Amino acid sequence: MPCEVKHRFVVLYGSQKGQAQSIAEGIAEEAEEHGLAADVCCLNQNEKYNLETEHAPVVFVASTTGDGEPPDNALKFVRRIKKKTLSSDHYKHLCFALLALGDTNYANFCNCGKTIERRLQELGAKQFYPTGYADDGVGLEVVIDPWLTGLWSAIKEALSKMASDGSAFLKENIDSAKETPDIQLNSLSITDENNCEPVGSSLSTDSKHASPPSITDLKPAASGLPSLSTSISTPKTCNDTVPNVKLAPSLTCSLPPLSTSSLNVPALPPPYLDVSFQKVDAMEQTAGPVNRETLHEVPISKAVELSRDDSVKTALLLELDISAYPTTIYQPGDSFDVFCPNRVEEVDEMLCRLNLQDQKTHHVHVALKKDTKKKGAQLPSHIPQNVSLLFLLTWCLEIRSVPKKALLRALVEHTADGAHRRRLQELCSKQGAADYNLYVRDPSLGVLELLTAFPSCSPPLSLLIEHLPRLQPRPYSAASSCVKHPGKLRFVFNMVEFPACSGRPVGRRGLCTGWLFDLISPRLVVPAKADSSSVPSLPKIHVSLRPNCSFRPPSHPSVPFIMVGPGTGVAPFISFLQQREEERKENPEAAFGETWLFFGCRHRDKDYLFREDLEDFVSSGTLTHLKVCFSRDHREDVEAVAPATQPRYVQHNLLLNSQNVTDVLFRQNGSIYVCGDAKNMAKDVNETLVEIIKAELHVDQLEAMKKLAELREEKRYLQDIWG
Description:
GO terms for molecular function: [methionine synthase] reductase (NADPH) activity; flavin adenine dinucleotide binding; FMN binding; methyltransferase activity. Residues 9-152 form the Flavodoxin-like domain. By secondary structure, the chain is of the alpha/beta class. Among the domains are: 7-167, Rossmann fold; 562-721, Rossmann fold (3-Layer(aba) Sandwich), CATH 3.40.50.80. The chain contains 19 helices and 24 strands. The strands form six sheets. Strands 1, 2, 3, 4, 5 and 6 form a six-stranded parallel β-sheet that branches. It has a six-stranded antiparallel β-sheet with strand order 15-12-19-10-11-16, covered by helices on one side. Strands 22-21-20-23-24 form a five-stranded parallel β-sheet, sandwiched between helices. Helix 17 (658-667) packs across helix 18 (678-697). The longest helix is centred in the N-terminal third of the chain and has 25 residues, at 141-165.
């Protein structure tokens, strides 16, 4: 029931790539439909909010980045509330709710949200609604949808209590509202996520956020219904031109029950940008990213293929000449960003898709709509003024980004074909969540691929600018020491391949790895000639250093450490060992702790990266123990005879050396470093370490997990992993 006076609450967000911001803005926009008014702003906008005097309910939406770090725009806030000088009742007047975004494939899941929650509680703040921990590893909407559904009754209950009590006092033990889903406080999951009933069509409430809850009831019915519904009166085959033949579901079509279901779709995100074009006389250069003045443009001095031609993955080593920037000093464990453009062919295809080929050299002017209903609308910071459309699509927008549900919902309004409209509605609906994951999210389907699959969809450029994120640089770990290779910076990467799928008829390469390969392939050095002189005339690329203050070798050389790095995960450990080798030469009398490296790959003779280097490290005493395994070189008869002595993966080798592992970590106070794949290897290594601790220290599962957590807190269990 609408209220005569709209009660106020505050929404604060910390967002690295825009997901948390989109959710926060969606909450603020939906507030009006619930008779509420929301002030929304970023955590770094100190001038727009003041928690020290705020008595309205506050909703935090916070993502986590890197190794459990806060987003850049939340870092100062987190540091501020962590000050030890703050008293335990500093925020006793404050009541809050929190939605944390994270990914269980990475360490320190939702760490930023957990840090804010814990610290606010320590400072006396009270929660009026249980925290939601959304996991991008399984789909954020699994938690976000029911959390947002229950948020509104919780806010109203909190406001009601504050009004009746005449203060901001809230009960310590939170009782969720009757309509609130069963969300356990400080729980990583929601136990009754399927109990959110569709909202009846008689209600006019709607919502806009990245992963929306149940909103509008759309029913497939006869023709003549409003534009949001398509005419589906009976279950259809995926291809009506082939009578009596039912095809499998795909990106562009569904089968019952989804194809005949009522749909709960998100509200239409309000458009907020006007885009105009200005014809210019001179042709603009498109070579270089937006902020190239602040970056280092460096030549590639060497390119070597580390794997054999017949290996499953192509591994390449690139060496950059950074001698023109003598003040650029990197440390072992540091990484750096490579700034790459969108592919020329894909930019041309996008121009054709938008029917803007003739305007590609025109300057693009972006302005806020005067009548926009979007709260807190701002011009995207990554869109510069007075650049050509070609530059915009080449260097500014991530045209390969996986479309969020809000974008799918917006595309519906620009789709002519009824079947296409219905399918886009399904993909952004609550009922179509499984299809969205299967056909869009999991295969990393890009916006351009989606538009190709739905040819009747013709969105304006303004819509893409509103929804597409910034073209992000790609990070790589340094695989060299500047002490051993002054003026040089090396890195290693596997060629990323995205296989063909529904919506992607032909596989494609990763954006940055494919671009780098195209740059260096004419003069690529094959493994047999890896010691040849530097390759001349290779192009330049733009990079910037990303110091990693935690993923570093122990500061004292006498501390032992273990390195786990299969495949290209060995890259930072080459820098570790090169640095250690130079330190041993400079201080031959010093006491150095033992070093362990657990390396693995598919085949000894195809993709054993840095084999000669590693064997040389062992010969020189720089590397004390080298443990290698080859997952595809095993014969079934050998495994049947002695599987325990034929380790396939790095975690198996860790188990075989469990006594030494625990000795290094718990008796010698050493460290362990893990680098590589997050989804499989890092999880398996973590579980193996728990098993090792249980067996060697004779403790139960919980105690073993606690000991491993203590190593993390002491910065002696460190990860540099990726998805």
